[in-house]
Write a structure and sequence with these properties.
This protein is α/β, with parallel strands linked by helices. The chain contains 14 helices and 21 strands. It is 33% helix and 24% strand. The structure holds cytidine-5'-triphosphate.
Length: 402
């Protein structure tokens, strides 16, 4: 980042309080920051704070006669190496998607010839709204880069995706945006499924499994670190999703299949979820009560769609499909047969017998099975398994291995 110039547009969101920290971190990496403050942004942070930390004046109006004499707004957006919008509100995203130029920030964004990175931040319902989804798709289609949002408690008291990515994640995204060639998976899209699925019996009960989602989250983070855009389709996991990936939260196997389908096309898919094999047919809309007979209710079960087998044979099949095999007996033989049966390229086999402590634990011992046989990896942390798998995926997609 040394010597790079960042034009930082600060929008109107409560997370603008993190921007002074972001400016300090960017400058600590040797880059300079030219701050631009929207009218709404000025409600959450002050021009004085930004200009003191940036060591440069803040730009906040289109109608500055001095700089307009030199076509100021065009100059501002062209002098930068990268334009960053943080926080990017729903309104700001809508205006960029529409190509509006009704204030300095939107005019700069329309006039720039540089890459643009946005860090969305808004209420969870605003983020989930179809209008914001449409705008996001338009922005991505226009080549605009995104970081976050994260999930968690929000200032408005709700919970879910919508929190601005943390300054560290924004810095990592800025670095990647400035050096795309250094990232082996930049420009690639990878779908990762993770966590268990919950299959409802009635509104208060469900069938689930012991998957924590730790391995899937680690894989998504490792792929992100190599520059991939990651669609992270996750069931109700015990760990939060990593920052800087597109989180699509689902509950059931059928929702997971639909979300994976909607995320296509992709260069690769890693199906790390522990998908429930069955769902309850005609799950009750109201709580099932004991009927006094002493007999438990009979649950009618049907098989869930096999997402891995389906994507492996889909018309829009990713170039590389990786499955997992959770086995308790004859691990290699069962996983090898599973690879052929499901039609995926690689399968990551692991022994989930209770004695191994793998399911729900922090370590994993896996065997990678591909066309050319089985390769046993030593027992290591789930992060290390994820990093090694991400490296192999990058090498494969870049044609360095068969
Ligand atoms: N999988 C899937 N959809 C399902 C079931 C499994 O996508 N309905 C995927 C998992 O994400 C994993 C792989 O298939 O990548 C294997 O999962 P596993 O539970 O080991 O296999 P099953 O198909 O459930 O086979 P079995 O229970 O017979 O061992």
């Amino acid at each position: 980042m040394l010597g790079k110039r960042i034009l930082l547009i600060v929008g109107g969101g409560i997370s603008a309080y993190k921007i002074p920290q972001l400016i300090r971190s960017i400058r600590a990496q040797g880059a300079s920051v030219t701050p631009v403050l929207t009218a709404a942004g000025a409600q959450f942070t002050t021009p004085m704070t930004l200009s003191v930390l940036a060591g440069e004046p803040v730009h906040d109006t289109l109608w500055d006669r001095n700089s307009e004499a030199e076509i100021g707004h065009i100059q501002l957006s062209r002098n930068a190496d990268l334009v960053v919008v943080a926080p990017a509100t729903a309104d700001m995203m809508a205006r960029i998607a529409q190509g509006l130029a009704n204030d300095l920030a939107s005019t700069l964004l329309l006039a720039t010839d540089k890459r643009v990175l946005i860090a969305p931040a808004m209420n969870v319902r605003m983020w989930d709204h179809p209008a914001t989804r449409r705008n996001l798709a338009t922005l991505r289609g226009d080549g605009i880069l995104t970081v976050g949002p994260d999930s968690g408690d929000m200032a408005c008291g709700e919970y879910g995706p919508g929190r601005m990515a943390e300054p560290d994640a924004i810095i990592a995204a800025i670095r990647d945006a400035l050096t795309p060639e250094a990232q082996p998976l930049s420009g690639r899209h990878v779908i990762v499924t993770s966590g268990p699925t919950h299959e409802p019996i009635d509104p208060v009960r469900y069938i689930a499994n012991r998957s924590s989602g730790v391995q899937g989250a680690a894989i998504a983070a490792a792929l992100r670190d190599l520059g991939a855009r990651v669609s992270f389709v996750t069931g109700p996991a015990a760990v939060p999703p990593p920052a800087g990936v597109d989180v699509i939260a689902v509950e059931t196997a059928r929702q997971m299949r639909d979300a994976v389908g909607a995320a296509l096309p992709a260069d690769a898919a890693v199906m790390a979820a522990a998908v429930a094999d069955w769902h309850v047919v005609g799950a009750s809309d109201s709580k099932i009560k004991k009927d006094g007979s002493g007999r438990p209710p009979a649950l009618d079960m049907a098989e869930n769609p096999d997402i891995l087998a389906w994507i492996s044979r889909a018309e829009e099949r990713p170039a590389l499909v990786v499955g997992f095999a959770a086995e308790t007996d004859d691990v290699i033989a069962n996983a090898t047969a599973k690879r052929l049966r499901k039609g995926c390229d690689w399968i990551v086999a692991n022994d989930v017998s209770p004695a191994t402590g793998i399911m729900g634990g922090t370590e994993n011992a896996v065997t990678l099975i591909g066309e050319h046989g089985a390769e046993e990896w030593p027992r290591m942390g789930k992060d290390a398994v994820a990093a090694r798998l991400a490296d192999r995926i990058a090498a494969h997609l870049n044609g360095k291995t068969t």
